[in-house]
């Protein structure tokens, strides 16, 4: 064991705990039992079988209020693996559940036996027919697919609020729709063809002209059974009419019985049945969508009403005017949304009775937009709107930033309201639809019912389609609270069905919490047909039992998860999973959601239990060490949960007092440390990569991998010993070369000026010279200590740099230009909590400007572009996302290159200062998709604006990345 290996005990929860009723039992501490583990390992290989207690707990939770711990998790790579898993399950009498993003709200992604992760190796999109169609793999997020389609002026029909995280497989399997899809743009209506694997292992491609012939040969009983059910349904005129009527409004409850009416052959029937089947009929391995036009002329308004019913009553008028979206938000939703960045703070003061409609019109051209705006104005003129707080305008706008803010608030409904729920409570999300003409009555009845059962719920929904969502919070550890929830559900389901003839699940699919009420909505005849359909397709009941069909009237009360309190920063988490796609480690170890899920399970356990010990043993590497600390999870989370900050705090807790003292000593003597580091990098050029890799490798084994960086061949040579000479007199800004740019030089083979030389030169050309202080050596943005959780060192350097910067800039009179985005973020924001009160005052007077902003806003307008490179690919860093200057990166690049490309899969490289040298597997995993996209073609320039991220991308792609400011210098050089 390395000398300084941290003890897992340090992170053991210290608070007194009452064991939770749903805690993982001690018997599960050893993970997957034998022979299951051994047999699946032999079948698939060890890398495809996740079996530790940490693995199982990570996958036990999703965005729903349920929690079921699987026996094993398998990660297939191709259809052969899927078929092998299904064959194994058949032979052993086991059950299989497929899980992709885990954003489903009703427990569809949870299983109690074999859970199959179909996200990791199942992403990809192929654009067909110039964008008219797209072939998409099931692990691709909706946002990622739309990013590619946008280049062709197209988009997908389904547009769920969870598009940032939910995947195509789940969208189709649940027939998820969203804000604009309604009943005409959802998956059922826009899927052109599917490829899927039946429970038997038979693969069906519905686009194959011979598909029915092949299926009849492979599955004759299945084909006969489907055609017999079709004939039976069509022979019953009353049932046929009922089925058609049920789908006149949004409905995802139960199986799509209209597939028997719409399809004429077994394959066509299966194509319809697979949509919305929630993984109970097979695995969808590929989807071909008919895409829709992306109308770019958008006009939107957020209109405020005195009550929910008043808002609902206005919906039909906007539908008649041609609105593509009419979204409803009640007072609770609006007030909770203040936790979302960009939402006006005065929404917190909105009266509880207030409601709002987010109304949007989209047109392909200016005349169409103007016509819609006239129609909208006519509707608004006849409404009694209110202005309860100053920020309310009740006006339509074309401004993209304002519209984006409206949608951000609306899409954060579940997470923002859920994040503001009482600590320790479980969140239930209900989703139902009524005929749009009855929406106002349904709102009034729903509010009355909630009050009767003591719930102060939040309500929102796709009002244009009569589709309402509401949230309930209760304590699943209290039987009385569970009973209250059960009583409400009984009354609610009867109300929705018997009074409004509505659908109990409009777009979230049946799931575990509505399965017991399926017959209430559909009646015994139709429900029995669904059971028989399941028997025909999956006679052995291998796939996803109890998720759509369940005869237990209390099934919705089984497996409700408790939510024990954890660290304050993470406690609001509702486990929605929005953070996962952006996390650099989500394909390697854990995601932010999983880090919180694991922590919650520790809190469920009695102190010292074998399960808690097993989780702690794994948590150090899987959660703490392999967190890049980039905090992009905070940007993706609608309520801004920063799991990266929590991991940095855990790193701090693991440090010994001696380690903290040493870190503080390096901060106090950073001038010598910096000089030594530069000399070491210079010497490395003479020593050779192989020897350095060997030496650092041995040191990592002896000391600790998380303390000693590994030498990488991509590490560049040393920066020039001296910085460019500049003058303070006449300077337009103070230029602060980051310590990484004072230590490391440019990419191998670079012949032009260094980055500091380029910044000085290009600023002078623009008539805005910069001054480099002579005493920058020994200062740093403090990120070195901040990222590792060394609080004492962080305090030393944070205060030093602010005091120095205040002096350099004459008390903030000049801007401080920083040439590395992570260092800009550090000085501008991350140092603040570590400053003395006096230095916080000084910090408020500083204007810290990223070099990208300096170049785009101040220099470019004054420069003459003399030459351009042909093509450039960009790597926007996570720090740029935090700072909001990705567009400036693009602006500067577009001035320097004829073609500029930002990869659709661009994300955090996870090099994170030196973390990519501490855990190179982290950067390899984080950059795999982006690197593949970059290397799919040649570019003339590979650009970013952060030296360590450039090194990370060098390693990932084998290309030489450099700062866009160096490219700007070349483009403007006389």
Written description of the protein model:
This protein is α/β, with parallel strands linked by helices. 43% of the residues lie in helices and 12% in strands. The protein contains 40 helices and 25 strands. The strands form 6 sheets. The protein has a 6-stranded antiparallel sheet with strand order 12-14-13-16-17-15, sandwiched between helices. It has a 5-stranded antiparallel sheet with strand order 5-6-10-8-9. A 4-stranded mixed sheet has the order 1-2-4-3. A hairpin with a 4-residue loop joins strand 5 and strand 6. It starts with 35 loop residues before the first helix and ends with a helix. The model has no long low-confidence stretch (mean pLDDT 93).
Low-confidence stretches: none
- How would you describe the shape? globular
Number of E-type strands: 25
- Structural class from helices and strands? alpha/beta
Number of helices: 40
Biggest sheet overview: 6 strands, antiparallel
- In helices, the fraction of residues equals 40-55%
Measured on Cα atoms, how large is the radius of gyration?
29 Å
Q: Strand order within the widest sheet?
A: 12-14-13-16-17-15
What fraction of residues sit in β-strands? Answer: 5-15%
* Mean pLDDT reading: 93
Distance between the termini: 59 Å
Question: Helices and strands in order, then pairings?
Answer:
Blueprint: H1 36-44, E1 49-50, H2 53-58, E2 72-74, H3 79-92, E3 96-99, E4 114-117, E5 125-128, E6 133-136, H4 142-150, E7 154-155, H5 168-174, H6 187-190, E8 191-197, E9 203-205, H7 211-218, H8 220-234, H9 237-246, H10 259-262, H11 266-274, E10 283-290, E11 292-293, E12 297-305, H12 308-321, E13 325-330, H13 331-336, E14 355-363, H14 366-381, H15 400-411, H16 413-419, E15 426-433, H17 439-452, E16 458-462, E17 467-474, H18 479-499, H19 511-514, H20 518-537, H21 592-604, H22 610-625, H23 632-636, H24 643-654, H25 657-668, H26 670-687, H27 689-702, E18 733-736, H28 739-743, H29 755-765, E19 770-771, H30 783-786, H31 791-808, E20 816-818, H32 821-830, H33 837-844, E21 848-850, H34 851-859, E22 869-874, H35 878-883, H36 886-896, E23 897-901, H37 915-918, H38 920-934, E24 941-944, H39 947-957, E25 962-963, H40 964-972
Parallel strand pairs: 2-4, 3-4, 18-19, 18-20, 20-21, 22-23, 22-24, 24-25
Antiparallel strand pairs: 1-2, 5-6, 6-10, 7-11, 8-9, 8-10, 12-14, 13-14, 13-16, 15-17, 16-17
């Amino acid at each position: 064991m390395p000398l300084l290996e941290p003890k897992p005990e340090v992170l053991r929860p210290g608070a007194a705990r009452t064991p939770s009723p749903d805690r993982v039992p001690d018997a599960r501490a050893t993970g997957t039992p034998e022979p299951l583990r051994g047999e699946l390992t032999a079948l698939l290989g060890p890398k495809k079988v996740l079996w530790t207690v940490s693995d199982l707990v990570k996958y036990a939770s999703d965005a729903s209020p349920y929690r079921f711990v699987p026996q094993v998790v398998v990660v297939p790579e191709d259809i052969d693996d899927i078929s092998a898993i299904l064959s194994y399950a058949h032979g052993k009498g086991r059950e299989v559940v497929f899980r992709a993003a885990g954003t489903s709200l009703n427990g569809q992604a949870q299983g109690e036996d074999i859970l199959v992760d179909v996200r990791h190796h199942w992403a990809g999109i192929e654009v067909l027919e110039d964008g008219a169609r797209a072939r998409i793999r099931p692990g691709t997020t909706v946002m990622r697919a739309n990013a590619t389609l946008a280049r062709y002026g197209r988009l997908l029909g389904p547009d769920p609020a969870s598009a940032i995280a939910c995947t195509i497989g789940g969208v189709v399997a649940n027939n998820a729709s969203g804000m604009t899809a309604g009943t005409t743009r959802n998956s059922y209506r826009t899927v052109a063809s599917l490829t899927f694997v039946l429970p038997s292992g038979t693969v069906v491609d519905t686009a194959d002209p011979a598909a029915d012939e092949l299926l009849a040969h492979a599955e004759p009983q299945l084909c006969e059974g489907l055609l017999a059910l079709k004939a039976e349904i069509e022979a019953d005129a009353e049932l046929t009419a009922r089925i058609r009527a049920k789908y006149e409004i949004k409905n995802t409850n139960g199986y799509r019985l209209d597939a028997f009416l719409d399809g004429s052959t077994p394959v066509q029937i299966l194509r319809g049945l697979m949509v919305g089947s929630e993984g109970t009929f097979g695995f969808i391995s590929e989807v071909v969508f008919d895409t829709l036009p992306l109308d770019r002329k958008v006009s939107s308004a957020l209109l405020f009403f005195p009550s929910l019913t008043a808002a609902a009553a206005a919906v039909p008028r906007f539908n008649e005017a041609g609105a593509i979206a009419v979204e409803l938000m009640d007072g609770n939703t609006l007030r909770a949304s203040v936790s979302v960045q960009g939402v006006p703070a005065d929404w917190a003061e909105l009266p509880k009775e207030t409601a709002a409609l987010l109304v949007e019109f989209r047109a392909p051209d200016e005349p169409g937009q103007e016509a819609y705006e006239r129609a909208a104005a006519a509707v608004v003129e006849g409404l009694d709107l209110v202005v309860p707080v100053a920020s309310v305008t009740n006006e339509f706008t074309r401004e993209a930033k304002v519209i984006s803010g409206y949608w951000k608030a609306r899409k954060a409904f579940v997470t923002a309201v859920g994040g503001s729920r009482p600590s320790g409570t479980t969140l239930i999300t209900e989703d139902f639809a009524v005929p749009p003409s009855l929406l106002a009555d349904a709102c009034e009845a729903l509010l009355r019912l909630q009050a009767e059962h003591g719930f102060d719920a939040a309500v929102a929904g796709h009002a244009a389609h009569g589709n309402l969502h509401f949230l309930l919070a209760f304590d699943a550890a209290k039987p009385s609270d569970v009973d209250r929830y059960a009583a409400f559900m009984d009354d609610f389901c009867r109300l929705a069905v018997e009074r409004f003839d509505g659908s109990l699940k409009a777009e979230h699919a049946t799931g575990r919490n509505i399965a017991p009420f399926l017959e209430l909505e559909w009646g015994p005849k139709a429900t029995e047909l669904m059971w028989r359909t399941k028997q025909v397709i999956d006679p052995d009941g291998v796939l996803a039992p109890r998720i759509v069909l369940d005869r237990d009237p209390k099934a919705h009360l089984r497996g409700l998860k408790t939510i024990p309190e954890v660290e304050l920063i993470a406690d609001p988490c509702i486990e929605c999973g929005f953070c996962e796609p952006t996390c650099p480690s989500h394909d390697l170890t854990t995601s932010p959601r999983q880090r919180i899920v694991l922590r919650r399970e520790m809190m469920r356990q009695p102190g010292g239990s074998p399960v808690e010990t097993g989780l702690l043993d794994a948590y150090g590497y899987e959660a703490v060490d392999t967190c890049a600390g980039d905090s992009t999870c905070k940007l993706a989370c609608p309520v801004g949960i920063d799991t990266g900050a929590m991991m940095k705090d855990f790193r701090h807790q693991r440090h010994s007092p001696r380690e903290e003292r040493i870190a503080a000593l390096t901060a106090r003597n950073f001038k010598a440390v910096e000089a030594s580091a530069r000399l070491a990098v210079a010497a490395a050029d003479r020593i050779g990569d192989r020897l350095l890799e060997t030496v650092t490798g041995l040191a990592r084994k002896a000391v600790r991998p998380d303390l000693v960086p590994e030498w990488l061949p991509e590490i560049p040579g040393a920066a020039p010993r001296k910085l460019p000479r500049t003058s303070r007199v006449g300077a337009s800004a103070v230029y602060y070369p980051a310590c990484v740019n004072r230590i490391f030089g440019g990419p191998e083979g670079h012949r032009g000026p260094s980055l500091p030389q380029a910044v000085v030169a290009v600023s002078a050309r623009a008539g805005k010279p910069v001054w480099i202080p002579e005493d920058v050596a020994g200062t740093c943005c403090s990120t070195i200590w901040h990222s590792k959780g060394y609080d004492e060192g962080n305090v030393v350097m944070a205060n030093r740099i602010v005091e120095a910067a205040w002096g350099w800039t004459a008390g903030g009179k000049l801007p401080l230009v920083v040439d590395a985005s992570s260092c800009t973020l550090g000085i501008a924001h991350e140092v603040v909590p570590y400053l003395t009160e006096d230095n916080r005052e000084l910090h408020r007077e500083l204007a810290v400007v990223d070099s990208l902003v300096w170049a785009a806003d101040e220099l470019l307008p004054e420069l003459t572009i003399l030459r351009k490179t042909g093509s450039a690919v960009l790597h926007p860093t996570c720090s740029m996302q935090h700072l909001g200057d990705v567009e400036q990166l693009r602006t500067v690049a577009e001035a320097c290159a004829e073609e500029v490309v930002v990869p659709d899969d661009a994300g955090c490289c996870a090099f994170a200062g030196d973390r990519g040298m501490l855990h190179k597997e982290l950067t390899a995993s984080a950059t795999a998709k982006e690197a593949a996209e970059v290397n799919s073609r040649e570019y003339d320039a590979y650009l970013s604006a952060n030296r360590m991220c450039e090194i990370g991308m060098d390693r990932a792609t084998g290309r030489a990345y450099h700062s866009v400011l160096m490219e700007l210098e070349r483009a403007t050089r006389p």
